[in-house]
Recover the amino acids of this structure.
């Protein structure tokens, strides 16, 4: 019998070799949360209350703890005799420093509780709490901060500072914090026990510009002590690709080649992978999880044995919409079964991602396997919440619930920051639904990619962390407080600024497909309105701090606007406008970097993402400007005409559009300068031996407006090969500039003499290599260009001549050797 996805059971033909893979593990039984509650299957607790306990009973109504009176300390802080973690020492220091910032009074830290003195007492080893949970309670004139562990006490300290004293750390750095001022601080009766609704929350608040500041932000926002679940792409860690030389059969056979992914049915692979996991837990006894996630490469093995398994399972992962999950479960189950014999409680995580997002159709996952579902912006929807009726959200919801029915442990990998997008990415309207949904569904781990876009997307990170602790958080109140606390007199326009984009995204049509639709969604009016709201906020700002904060938002909006301009121009196929925006973007990012404003956007990512595109765009803009198209309008017109003028346009830019091409020849890095053919003379009728048989010269003419020759198309080959392109040119006697762009590296010979060489893997960038050359008046010179392909999507080249000032130079070109060169 087999349980099908709809819950029905029916008799199936049992294949003997398959029974192993299709057996049902004991039904996962999970307690309603990690920290208590009755055990029960998932469907019983799907709609139960999240794991947040508010204990209000047994409060002594007379209790009152005077911490500060008239700016003078009244209480002491009683700290544990020994402090093991830096987090706890730092939290105790924050407790003193922030109460002092608030009131001017510094509470002394002591080890012994003095008689008759109000005190904040930190207490370890409390019962009935998780490793990160805490309890705050008043007892006569004491406030007890109790935790089972130091991390629990740390979270409790910040619970006191934030929830009861009103201090907030919205964004790393002093400008991002809010400290109310009070001469008197008195705590009334408190008795509350707090546990995060999601037991493990990690990944938030990274801060490349200043990693310790990121760690500080996480600690202050109660993310101390959460178990990091290991789920990164890790097949490289199971069997490194360096083994591919000696054991190609361990690696996936993909389109005839052994690639960077494992063959999961090879017995050695299963044995070695299991061994790696066991070794890891032996070396790291404290570790609770290990990652079995495939390498970040969507393709899997096509070998006969793997395909036979697919057939046995009756699941074709190569069919349209097919998924590899069942096949992967067979592999993972074999590892999990063996690991469980020695380590019954260790969890093996893997990404449910792209080609293996869907739960298995046939194979039951071992209960120690934990899918970490990747809520990618490119596969799912972030404009609408998980409960929405748009197709991607429906699919996400079904996938999550099905995985949850199959597996006692399920995690989510989310994208509350987007690595390509530094502008507005307003997700609070979805987080406030998604995170409570995760909590109710019993998701035990939430990891989110967030980036350092602190002053463009601050609310995603802050709100998500608050919701993961307390799914009932009122996010609108949170946004209002954020505006009121950081922007005071300018709060109102800043609130309207944030909600302008949040509302726009929330109201995107259900058929909006993906994140890129959001990039072009705001109208020019909406962008302008955002700018004006921030100008209004700046005008209203009175204090220097508020002015600085608004300025940071304005800088973020400036970057956002340029990114939006590039995206909308690209969507409208206005290439020139897109290029010009790309150039402005890289300039703006570099300006931010050099001005030291590194907390507006994720500088590291922004540079990485915009540099290549910016350089490419700059090359095209310069090229057209040097060709006499000096204004944007002229360049736009030129590009429109370029489409139809093709070769003619390329020749006007000085590009060589006709070549004799021969290849491919095998070529590895470092072999670019090695000639496979005579470079001093070319005879187009000559043939050359090559591994695939004889190769001959072929005449090629490109009609690409920038003279790009698509070598992949011409030679139907690529990856680890090279070709030679030859033309005869007449060059003037005064020096001119010979310019190459190629993917990947290229070497040029002029009459047999090497004049240029760049042995690097790269994308094509026009004019990237330049060399000054001079000819003999009236003579035909042989120009030979060798281009190597290291792999990747493209293999191409573009070559042209300009004068020394960069103005295009049309030189006479021929593809047959002139009589004087003929041998
Ligand atoms: Zn295979
Ligand atoms: Zn949607």
């Amino acid at each position: 019998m087999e349980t099908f996805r709809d819950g029905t059971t029916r008799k199936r033909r049992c294949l003997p070799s398959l029974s192993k893979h299709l057996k049902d593990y004991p039904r996962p039984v999970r307690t309603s949360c990690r920290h208590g509650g009755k055990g029960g299957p998932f469907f019983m607790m799907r709609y139960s209350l999240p794991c947040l306990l508010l204990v209000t009973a047994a409060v002594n109504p007379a209790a009152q703890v005077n911490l500060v009176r008239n700016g003078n300390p009244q209480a002491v802080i009683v700290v544990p005799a020994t402090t093991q973690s830096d987090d706890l020492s730092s939290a105790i220091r924050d407790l003193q420093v922030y109460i002092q910032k608030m009131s001017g009074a510094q509470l002394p830290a002591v080890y012994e509780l003095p008689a008759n003195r109000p005190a904040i007492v930190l207490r370890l080893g409390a019962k009935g709490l998780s490793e990160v949970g805490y309890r705050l309670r008043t007892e006569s004139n004491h406030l007890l901060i109790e935790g089972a562990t130091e991390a629990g006490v740390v979270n409790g300290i910040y619970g006191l500072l934030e929830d009861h004293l009103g201090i907030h750390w919205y964004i790393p750095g002093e400008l991002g914090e809010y400290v109310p001022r009070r001469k008197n601080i008195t705590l009334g009766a408190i008795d509350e026990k707090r546990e995060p609704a999601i037991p493990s929350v990690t990944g938030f608040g990274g801060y490349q510009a200043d990693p310790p500041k990121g760690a500080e932000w996480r600690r202050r926002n109660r993310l101390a002590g959460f178990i990091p679940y290991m789920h990164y792409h890790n097949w490289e860690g199971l069997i490194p690709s360096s083994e591919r030389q000696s054991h190609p059969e361990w690696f996936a056979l993909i389109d005839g080649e052994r690639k960077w992914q494992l063959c999961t049915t090879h017995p050695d692979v299963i044995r070695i992978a299991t061994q790696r996991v066991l070794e890891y837990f032996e070396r790291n006894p404290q570790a609770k999880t290990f990652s079995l996630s495939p390498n970040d490469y969507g393709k899997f093995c096509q070998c006969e044995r793997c395909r036979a398994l697919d057939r046995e399972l009756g699941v074709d992962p190569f069919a349209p919409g097919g998924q590899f999950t069942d096949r992967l479960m067979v592999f993972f189950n074999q590892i999990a079964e063996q690991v469980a014999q020695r380590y019954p409680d260790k969890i093996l995580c893997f990404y449910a991602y792209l080609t293996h997002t869907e739960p298995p159709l046939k194979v039951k996952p071992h209960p120690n396997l934990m899918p970490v579902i990747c809520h990618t912006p490119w596969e799912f929807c972030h404009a609408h919440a998980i409960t929405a009726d748009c197709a991607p959200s429906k699919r996400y919801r079904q996938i999550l619930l099905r995985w949850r029915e199959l597996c006692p442990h399920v995690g989510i990998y989310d994208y509350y920051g987007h690595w390509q997008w530094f502008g507005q990415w307003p997700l609070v309207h979805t987080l406030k639904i998604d995170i409570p949904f995760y909590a109710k569904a019993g998701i035990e781990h939430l990891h989110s990619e967030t980036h350092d876009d602190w002053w463009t997307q601050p609310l995603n990170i802050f709100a998500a962390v608050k919701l993961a602790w307390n799914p009932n958080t009122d996010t609108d109140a949170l946004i209002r407080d954020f505006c009121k606390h950081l922007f005071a007199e300018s709060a109102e326009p800043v609130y309207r600024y944030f909600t302008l984009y949040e509302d726009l995204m929330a109201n995107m049509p259900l058929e909006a497909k993906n994140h890129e639709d959001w990039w072009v969604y705001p109208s020019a009016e909406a962008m302008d309105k955002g700018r004006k709201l921030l100008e209004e906020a700046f005008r209203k700002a009175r204090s220097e701090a508020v002015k600085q904060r608004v300025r940071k938002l304005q800088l973020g909006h400036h970057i956002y606007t340029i990114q939006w301009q590039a995206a909308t121009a690209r969507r409208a196929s206005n290439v020139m406008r897109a290029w010009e925006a790309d150039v402005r973007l890289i300039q703006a990012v570099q300006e931010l970097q050099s001005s030291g404003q590194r907390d507006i956007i994720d500088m590291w990512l922004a540079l990485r993402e915009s540099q290549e595109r910016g350089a490419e765009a700059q090359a095209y803009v310069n090229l057209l400007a040097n060709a006499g198209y000096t204004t944007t309008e002229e360049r736009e017109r030129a590009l429109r005409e370029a489409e139809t003028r093709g070769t003619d346009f390329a020749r006007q830019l000085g590009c060589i559009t006709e070549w004799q091409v021969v290849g491919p020849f095998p070529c590895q890095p470092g072999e670019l300068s090695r000639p496979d053919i005579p470079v001093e003379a070319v005879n187009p009728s000559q043939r050359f031996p090559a591994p695939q048989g004889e190769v001959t010269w072929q005449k090629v003419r490109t009609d690409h407006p920038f003279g790009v020759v698509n070598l992949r198309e011409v030679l139907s080959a690529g990856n680890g090969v090279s070709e030679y392109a030859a033309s005869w040119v007449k060059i003037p006697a005064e020096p001119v500039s010979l310019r190459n762009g190629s993917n990947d590296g290229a070497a040029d010979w002029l009459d047999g003499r090497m004049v240029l060489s760049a042995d690097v893997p790269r994308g094509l960038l026009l004019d990237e290599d330049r060399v000054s050359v001079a000819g003999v008046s009236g003579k035909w010179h042989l120009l030979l260009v060798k281009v190597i392909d290291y792999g990747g999507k493209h293999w191409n080249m573009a070559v042209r001549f300009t004068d020394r000032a960069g103005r295009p130079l049309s030189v006479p070109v021929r593809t047959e050797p002139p009589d004087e060169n003929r041998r």
Notes: Residues 2-45 form one domain. The longest strand covers residues 721-730. Residues 253, 263, 265, 301, 303, 305-306 surround zinc ion (ligand 1) (CB under 6 Å). The CA atoms of residues 164 and 187 lie 8 Å apart.
